[in-house]
Amino acid sequence: MEKSVIAKYKKAGEITQEVQELAKKRLKVGANLFEFAEEIESAIMKKGAKPAFPINLSINNVAAHYSPAFNSKDTLPEDAVIKVDIGVHVDGYIADSARTLDFSGKHQNMVKAAEDALENAVAIAKKGAIIGDMGATIEDAIRGAGFRPIQNLSGHGVAEFDAHTYPTIPNIANHDPKKLEDGIAIAIEPFATDGEGLVREGSQAEIFQLEDKKPVRGREARKIIEFVEENYRNLPFAERWLQRDLKMGEFGRKVGLRELMQKRCLTAFPLLKEEAGKIVTQAETTLILHDGKVTRLL
Ligand code: CO
């Protein structure tokens, strides 16, 4: 990994750390989540970086992929267990992180289970570490605390302008014999629950990603594709960003996104909900493996 690349990863990690602190300080019961999301994302940009994906503010039984819609009236409910998942990139080099804030005070053990699982996995992550062993470490920590890991969610590699790439870092002992290689970046993200330990997709999606650039007919679809390609490439984006940055109204957004989904130019990331409707916690950080060493970005 080149020195300049390492420096960019580190910078992304520092900014992620700062905005995670800001998010923790600013988030209050009753807060409007749309305004909060925009505040955090603009803080990232003011620091000279960009969101690597829309901020995820998934609450209670929603494990991932909730990001508020434009002008949404959604507020942070009382007793919420909220996963603040933030990705930041500097010239395409990404730090991905998540923290769980427990406004109920009743799920501290589950928050700690995910955090301890993360720490244990980080402790063994290095060049040559067996990927299945990382999953086993995570699973042991979460089950040892009396919870279940979410088995169909996993950590992942990150690469230049790529928020989800090889390798998959499982949250269970899946016995993957492959080894971590030098020169990669990985996000480790254990999820704990008092439910089934599985998530399924909901119907609502606010987050999309450009998959395949094909010729499209509609004016809105064309505008969206050009805008996303120029500004976000293959990183996930929020529908609300089309309003914010492109000044595209709701009707245009819906028409354009529908055509792009039908033509399979876009992938949607629907909400991921815990199968039994139970609480989910998450902890996440990003590591870079370089020169035989491990550097934790935050
Ligand atoms: Co991640």
At CATH level 2, the architecture of the largest domain is Alpha-Beta Complex
Evaluate the radius of gyration. 19 Å
| Strand-residue proportion | 25-35%
List each distinct ligand once.
cobalt (II) ion
Instruction: List unreliable stretches of 5+ residues.
Output: none
How would you describe what is shown here?
This protein has 298 residues and is α+β, with helices and mostly antiparallel strands. It folds into 2 domains: 3-199 and 274-296, Creatine Amidinohydrolase; 205-271, Arc Repressor Mutant, subunit A. It has 7 helices and 15 strands. It has helices at 3-26, 33-46, 108-124, 131-144, 219-231, 239-246, 250-262, and strands at residues 50-59, 62-64, 81-90, 93-102, 148-149, 155-159, 162-169, 184-188, 191-193, 199-210, 237-238, 266-274, 280-282, 285-290, 293-296. The strands form 4 sheets. A 5-stranded antiparallel beta sheet has the order 7-6-8-14-15. A 4-stranded antiparallel beta sheet has the order 2-12-10-11. Helix 3 (108-124) runs antiparallel to helix 4 (131-144) and helix 5 crosses helix 7. It starts with a helix and ends with a strand. It binds cobalt (II) ion.
